[in-house]
Q: What sequence folds into this?
């Protein structure tokens, strides 16, 4: 395994995010113009996003599983649909041992808290995710300016790359692995 400096990790994660966002934009454009878009492109982009984010998260000392659960809790706490009787999807993330468990918890969270997006046609969901990733490109670009800003970004928003990597697999109708993963340690 190659050990990268923090700056190398930042640059690598940023380059991957730019690539992913560009490829997703191209995917959406091809769909819109009926030029043919390959589902494998979504799967590849989602995989790249998850892998890149895991490397960056490990380098930032943020705990992937805990931060993922915390992020869902943040989103749920601000949502008008929040109800104390709901199944607690963040707890499912905290106890996940596989990418599949994360994917199912994320999909159920989305169905409850983002019905406006989940109800869209798949092409529109991909476009929506591309808009979110475009915002993350901008935020990550700004975060690379100094260590304090990067640390804040890593703590609060780096996990979003994993979240959208999972969502892309789901929108492409691909089941993530049931195999245990050391990504959650």
A:
């Amino acid at each position: 395994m190659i050990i990268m400096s923090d700056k190398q990790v930042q640059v690598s994660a940023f380059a991957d995010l730019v690539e992913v966002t560009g490829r997703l934009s191209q995917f959406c454009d091809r769909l819109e113009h009926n030029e043919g878009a390959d589902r494998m492109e979504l799967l590849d982009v989602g995989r790249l996003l998850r892998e890149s984010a895991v490397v960056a998260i490990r380098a930032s000392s943020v705990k992937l599983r805990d931060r993922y659960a915390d992020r869902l809790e943040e989103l749920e706490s601000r949502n008008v649909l929040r109800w104390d009787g709901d199944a607690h999807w963040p707890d499912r993330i905290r106890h996940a041992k596989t990418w599949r468990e994360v994917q199912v918890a994320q999909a159920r969270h989305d169905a409850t808290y983002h019905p406006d997006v989940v109800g869209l046609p798949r092409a529109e969901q991909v476009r929506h995710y591309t808009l979110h990733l475009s915002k993350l490109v901008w935020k990550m670009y700004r975060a690379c300016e100094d260590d304090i800003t990067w640390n804040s970004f890593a703590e609060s928003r780096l996990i979003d790359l994993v979240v959208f990597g999972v969502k892309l697999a789901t929108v492409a109708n691909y089941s993530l692995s049931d195999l245990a993963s050391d990504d959650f340690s």
About this structure: The chain is about 70% helix and 0% strand. Residues 6-32 form the longest helix (27 residues). Residues 6-184 form one domain.
